[in-house]
Amino acid sequence: MKSKPSRKTSAGSGEQHTAPQISRRTLRVTFEYNGGEFRIANQMRVEKITPPTMTPCPDAATAAGYWVELRDRRGRCLFHRLLPDAIRDSAEIYPGKNQLARTPLRQVAGRFEVLLPDLPEADSVVIMGHPVSSEGLKQHQRARVLAKFKIGKDGLAK
């Protein structure tokens, strides 16, 4: 039996299979956040091919922004989904004629949805990014684990 070929990713995060697994089942998860607290608001398994990811898993030591990782029992990233603008602490406003400005939100709270492949080897879903507090995003600090949820036979543990 031949083993699957692997290659080093450009981010230096280890090995990744050259042919990513295609899942015909998808976990649709809605997360809510309030300051630095994250919770699962809704989840469902759907019969749908998961949209692919286009880049290797980000390396928390060098990456910026926010993303969700699907991990196996060893903590290896099986899949990730980038979260551009999912977690916000400011909004664009138009205070005058043809002007654009950013203003801080009164409360750093919201919700976002992600689609992840429903893989049998998946053990947890991890939200990664810069620390979040009720005062805003701490983008000057290194990305880290913000929340982790175990996957069981009935879905994610809330």
Overview of this structure, please?
- Helices cover 0% and strands 49% of the residues.
- By secondary structure, the protein is an all-beta fold.
- The protein has a single domain (20-156), classed as Sandwich (Immunoglobulin-like), CATH 2.60.40.
- The protein has a 5-stranded antiparallel β-sheet with strand order 6-5-10-13-14, with no helix packed on it. It has a 3-stranded antiparallel β-sheet with strand order 4-3-9, with no helix packed on it.
Count structural domains: 1
> End-to-end distance, in Å?
40 Å
Biggest beta sheet summary: 5 strands, antiparallel
Which range best describes the helical content: under 10%, 10-25%, 25-40%, 40-55%, 55-70% or over 70%?
A: under 10%
* Major sheet strand order: 6-5-10-13-14
Strand content: over 45%
General shape:
elongated
CATH class: Mainly Beta
Helix count equals: 0
- For the secondary structure, the number of strands is 14
What is the CATH architecture assignment? Sandwich
The rounded Rg comes to 17 Å
User: Structural class, from helix and strand content?
Assistant: mainly beta
Low-confidence stretches are: 1-19
